[in-house]
Amino acid sequence: MTNPVRVIEGTAKPHEPFWRFRDQTESESGDVELEFFGPISEYSWWGDEVTPEAFKKELNQKGNGKPVTVLVNSPGGEVIAASVIRSILQEYPGKVTADIVGLAASAATIMVTGADHIRMRESALFLIHDPSGLAWGNIEEIKDFLEVLKTVKNSIVDTYETKTGLDRDRLSKLMTEETWMTAREAKDFGFIDEVVTSSVKKATIPQTARLAFANCLSAYMHVPDSLKSLLGEPVENESAKQPEPSDEERRL
After folding, report:
1. For 36, 141, 172, 182, which has the most beta carbons within 10 A of its beta carbon?
2. Where are the alpha helices (DSSP H) in the chain?
3. Within a 13 Å sphere around the CA of 30, how many CA atoms are in the beta-carbon half?
């Protein structure tokens, strides 16, 4: 068995869970809780059968067919992993509620559509954008890579269209523009079902996930100052030079 390919710089080991379960006695919701507080996999799930199977097995064992609340504070990550998790959540026999407590960006916005109900804290943020990746080779190889990116984007638009009912051209434009949304804006667009306004405990970024979290955000052009401050990064003014995209492959 070969190790999966690392696509996000971080500290995780191959096949290591990037999720955490809490049983009903530990949770705030009263349901079994599943946390995604960091990138959606630092490794590609392309050809990886071990990690998806481990996630599915743990979900079914810990959830046991009962309601599960998925807590999300994620800058995104690997698109295939997000898509597979979405499918596994859809297949789970119990009710799945996604609760965006801090940030749902990029691949995380695909993952949460696997839930039966999506709610979002009033102070949280939601981001959609075009897929990106690193290409090298001759003209024909680069053309092939562009076709792959177009196919990936079309599949994401399909997912968003099913959830929101918005026109495909409008969704495509929102992605190209790297659209950041508040909870109320995300609800108006139809990406989420409910805005939570009650006072709740703030979700933090685990220390082990901070590097990968920051690396994910470095690829975005218009990261809100509130997120930069959260990560301890210097806040630049609008005229400052934007960072170059990272060389992460197959990520959103």
Report:
1. 36
2. 50-63, 79-91, 107-111, 139-164, 168-176, 183-189, 210-217, 225-230
3. 0
Closest CA to 72 of 113, 102, 43, 92: 102
Closest to 72 in 3D by CA, of 32, 117, 40, 95: 40
Structure tokens at 240: 């400052």
Q: Which of 72, 78, 18 is nearest to 216 (CA)?
A: 78
CB neighbour list of residue 121: distance below 8 Å, 6 or more residues apart: 99, 100, 101, 102, 183, 195, 196, 200
Tell me if residue 33 falls in helix, strand or coil.
strand
Residues counted in the chain: 252
For residue 103, list its beta bridge partners: 125
Tens place of pLDDT for every residue, the chain, 252 residues?
578 999 888 899 999 999 999 988 888 778 999 999 999 999 999 889 999 999 999 999 999 999 999 999 999 999 999 999 999 999 999 999 999 999 999 999 999 999 999 999 998 999 999 987 666 778 877 777 678 778 889 999 999 999 999 999 999 999 999 999 999 999 999 999 999 997 555 556 565 555 666 666 666 677 777 666 655 554 444 434 444 545 444 445
